[in-house]
């Protein structure tokens, strides 16, 4: 694969770079104990999952959640179906939080 580094074929260069980054991430893991890749497995077939360790809450006291993250209070991953149930009666629009920034020295036409 080393000859793929300077190949004219973009797919070969991409494959070489992917393997090079994977090996660098494994070396980093062995050196520091921190796995910095988003995929794992012999063929990189599995995605790294996320676990919530500190909950965040909306002002009304309901927990903030992200689909695909494991939460200890529900004992599993937060799925899209759970999100749909939680947000059934709520207006989750953030239109009130969006505003236009005006520039101090903008040219007016």
Characterise this structure:
The chain has 109 residues and is an alpha+beta fold. It folds into 2 domains: 2-46, no CATH class; 50-86, no CATH class. 28% of the residues lie in helices and 14% in strands. The chain has helices at 10-32, 80-86, and strands spanning 39-40, 46-47, 50-51, 56-57, 63-64, 69-71, 76-77. It has a 3-stranded mixed beta sheet, with no helix packed on it. The N and C termini lie far apart (58 Å). The model has no long low-confidence stretch (mean pLDDT 83).
C-alpha termini separation: 58 Å
> In what order do the strands lie side by side in the largest sheet?
3-6-7
Poorly predicted ranges (pLDDT <50, ≥5 residues)?
Answer: none
| Amount of beta strand | 5-15%
Largest sheet geometry: 3 strands, mixed
Mean pLDDT: 83
Helix/strand/pairing category: alpha+beta
Query: What sequence of helices (H) and strands (E) makes up the elements?
Result: HEEEEEEEH
Total strands? 7
Which outline best applies? Answer: extended
Task: Write a brief structural summary.
The protein is of the alpha+beta class. The protein has two helices and seven strands; from the N terminus they run αβββββββα.
């Amino acid at each position: 694969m080393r000859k793929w580094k300077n190949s004219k074929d973009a797919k070969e260069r991409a494959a070489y770079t992917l393997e090079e980054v994977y090996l660098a991430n494994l070396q980093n893991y062995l050196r520091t104990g921190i796995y910095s890749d988003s995929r794992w497995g012999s063929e990189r077939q599995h995605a790294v999952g996320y676990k919530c360790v500190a909950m965040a809450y909306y002002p009304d006291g309901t927990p903030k959640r992200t689909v695909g993250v494991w939460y200890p209070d529900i004992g599993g991953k937060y799925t899209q179906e759970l999100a749909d149930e939680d947000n059934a009666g709520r207006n989750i629009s953030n239109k009130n939080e969006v505003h236009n920034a005006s520039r101090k020295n903008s040219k007016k036409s």
